[in-house]
Design goal:
Shape: elongated
Number of domains: 2
Strand content: 35-45%
Number of helices: 1
Order of helices and strands: EEEHEEEEEE
CATH architecture of the largest domain: Roll
Number of strands: 9
Low-confidence stretches: none
CATH class of the largest domain: Alpha Beta
Radius of gyration: 18 Å
CATH topology of the largest domain: Chitinase A, domain 3
Largest sheet: 5 strands, antiparallel
């Protein structure tokens, strides 16, 4: 049985949670299928990929990933206040909107609604957070 290395195609079941136990994503949810990816191509966050290296089909591992190996630290420069007229009417804190930057579409989160403006956070929702993944290798090709 071969162990996973960079360049391998892997099929993995996973459950991602935060330090407080909140589950933010899982391939085991109803209607979902295992994750299929080729390692070494930047398809996965670095810590997730590193956690798979050396495992074999059927093996399980729990990995803890610091923000630097996940979605990075929360960057205050990625918070912007814009005129309320530039967003859909009735937006509320926690809403996700799609905007555009020089690289294309970007999802932003409404973090504050003021009288005349709205504060948008362009950081990834998991930026600055330690992520914990329970991994189970389904197959390695």
């Amino acid at each position: 049985m071969s162990t996973i290395k960079s360049g391998d195609n892997v099929t993995v079941n996973y459950t991602g949670r935060l330090e407080d136990g909140t589950i933010f994503d899982s391939s085991l949810n109803e209607g979902r299928t295992p994750l299929v990816a080729t390692l070494g191509q930047g398809q996965l966050i670095p810590g997730f990929e590193e956690g798979l290296i050396g495992l074999s089909t059927g093996e399980k591992r729990t990995v803890e990933i610091e923000p630097e190996n996940a979605y990075g630290q929360h960057n205050p420069m990625m918070i912007q206040e814009i005129e309320k007229t530039n967003v859909p009417e009735g937006v509320q804190v926690g809403d996700t909107l799609q905007g555009m930057n020089q690289y294309g579409p970007i999802n932003v989160t409404v973090s504050e609604v003021k009288e005349e403006t709205v504060v948008l956070d362009m950081n990834h929702p998991l930026a600055g957070k330690k992520l914990i993944f329970d991994l189970e290798v389904v197959s390695v090709n």
